[in-house]
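User: Reviewer 2 asked us to show a designed sequence for the structure in our supplementary figure. I'm pasting the structure tokens here. Could you produce the per-position amino acids so we can include them in the response letter?
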């Protein structure tokens, strides 16, 4: 056991030191904004930054002799501990500003922001200091592309390699694909694309009618697909077709793979989106759902005109399918099974390499192809039937990984829902909250629906959902591998 600690845990804790110190510096950004606004939250951020920096410095200095190049096992452990600990430190300003909030609720809120889930236990958002709302949105923006991906560009400068970390955090089954030869350059390239889309989104929101403050905050939660809002009424606060349209456009953009954005930008060829099967499936699913929901909303009387029905359907469907979770209406009350369809879409729609959550569309395509191959082999047992997605042949080891991932993902939803049921939460809330948190959607159905929140849940229920949010964001295997005996074997 002591050997395991020396070889595995202590080098990871040492690598976490610089990450925490960098995060402490980031925490000074809302502190400066609070100072300029004089909104009363300055000392909350200063104290939070001081505690975080102190912890990071302690780990760096006391464990300096364990500093070494990280292996694959170190990478998995570092990713998981980074998300768990950074969420804890990110919760400090929330707890200091709202003493009655408590650690579980503050930690749930911070984890929801970092994992871009968008579930909240807070009310009275319109009365919160702008810097505190900005902190929640900023955490989502950081989490959108991953705190660890950002750190990949920094850790090599400290003598800690980032390749294994990048592989552990990156979403999707085809993790070995690189955009550039060096992993740090890949991280910087992705952030360049991410930053460019963010700037464009903020400008578009402002010209659509938002104040610059709202434009920047909601830009952060749009490009990260988190759905965290600075108002209790979410996007219903703005009641603007232009604002809704901007949100829809950028939610769709960020539902694509950022590697695809990079390729389109590098080649100056927007047609790459039309040649990518996953991108076409993402857009195709959205169009099918919007086309189906629009007449239902109009004929059921939930919309007074076809344009209003189209606007409501497009916004809510793109918001749910992209795992953003913004709300302009209570889609949990829509007829004809639409609420369940929207909840299910959050699990399958977005592309791998996007800021969205869920299983990812590429895995769904592989599962469909595998099912088709099984039918072929039933009829022609000796047939050679490779699985292809577009022009790419999918190796069997990836197919098996997708099957295993889907099984473990489904088991996690079931286990989470049954755990919530055992705590006394209602069946509708239990099942929908489990799906909404593991897909990083946020709103579920019932009291935790689009116009509700998670405030009424107990500390234990929030702990269960917090774990689901983190495991969903880190794609199950990264977290669950830590619970295997083989991982800790020296």
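Assistant: Here is a per-position design you can include in the supplement:
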């Amino acid at each position: 056991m002591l050997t395991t600690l020396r070889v595995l845990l202590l080098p990871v804790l040492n690598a976490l030191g610089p990450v925490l110190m960098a995060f402490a510096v980031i925490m000074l950004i809302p502190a400066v904004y609070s100072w300029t606004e004089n909104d009363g939250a300055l000392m909350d951020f200063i104290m939070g930054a001081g505690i975080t920096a102190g912890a990071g410095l302690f780990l760096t200095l006391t464990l300096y002799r364990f500093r070494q190049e990280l292996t694959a096992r170190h990478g998995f452990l570092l990713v998981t501990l980074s998300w768990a600990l950074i969420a804890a430190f990110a919760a400090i300003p929330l707890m200091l500003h709202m003493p009655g909030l408590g650690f579980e609720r503050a930690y749930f809120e911070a984890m929801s922001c970092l994992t871009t889930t968008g579930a909240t236990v807070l009310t009275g958002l319109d009365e919160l200091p702008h810097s505190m709302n900005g902190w929640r949105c900023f955490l989502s923006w950081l989490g959108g592309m991953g705190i660890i991906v950002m750190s990949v560009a920094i850790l090599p400068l400290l003598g800690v390699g980032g390749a294994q970390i990048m592989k552990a955090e990156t979403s999707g089954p085809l993790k070995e694909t690189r955009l550039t030869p060096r992993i740090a350059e890949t991280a910087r390239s992705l952030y360049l694309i991410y930053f460019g889309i963010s700037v464009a989104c903020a400008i578009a929101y402002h010209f659509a009618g938002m104040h610059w403050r709202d434009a920047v905050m909601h830009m952060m939660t749009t490009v990260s697909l988190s759905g965290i809002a600075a108002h209790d009424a979410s996007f219903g606060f703005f009641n603007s077709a232009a604002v809704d349209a901007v949100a829809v456009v950028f939610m769709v953009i960020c539902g694509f793979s950022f590697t695809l954005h990079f390729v389109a930008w590098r080649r100056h060829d927007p047609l790459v989106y039309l040649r990518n099967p996953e991108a076409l499936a993402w857009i195709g699913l959205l169009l099918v759902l919007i086309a189906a929901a629009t007449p239902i909303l109009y004929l059921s009387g939930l919309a007074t005109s076809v344009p209003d029905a189209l606007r409501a359907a497009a916004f809510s469907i793109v918001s749910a399918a992209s795992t953003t979770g913004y709300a302009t209406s209570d889609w949990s009350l829509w007829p004809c099974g639409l609420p369940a369809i929207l909840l299910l879409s959050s699990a399958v729609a977005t592309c791998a390499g996007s800021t969205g959550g869920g299983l990812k569309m590429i895995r769904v395509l592989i599962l469909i192809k595998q099912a088709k191959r099984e039918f072929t082999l039933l009829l022609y047992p000796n047939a050679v039937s490779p699985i292809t997605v577009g022009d790419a042949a999918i190796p069997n080891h990836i197919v098996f990984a997708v099957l295993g991932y889907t099984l473990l993902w489904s088991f996690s939803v079931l286990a989470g829902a049954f755990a919530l049921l055992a705590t006394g939460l209602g069946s509708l809330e239990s099942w929908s909250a489990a799906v909404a948190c593991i897909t990083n959607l946020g709103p579920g159905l019932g009291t935790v629906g689009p116009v509700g929140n998670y405030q009424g849940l107990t500390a234990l229920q929030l702990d269960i959902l917090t774990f689901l949010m983190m495991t969903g964001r880190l794609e199950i295997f990264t977290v669950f591998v830590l619970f295997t005996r083989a991982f800790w074997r020296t």
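For the response letter, you might also mention the following. DSSP finds 20 helices and two strands in the chain. Residues 150-166 have pLDDT under 50 and may be disordered.
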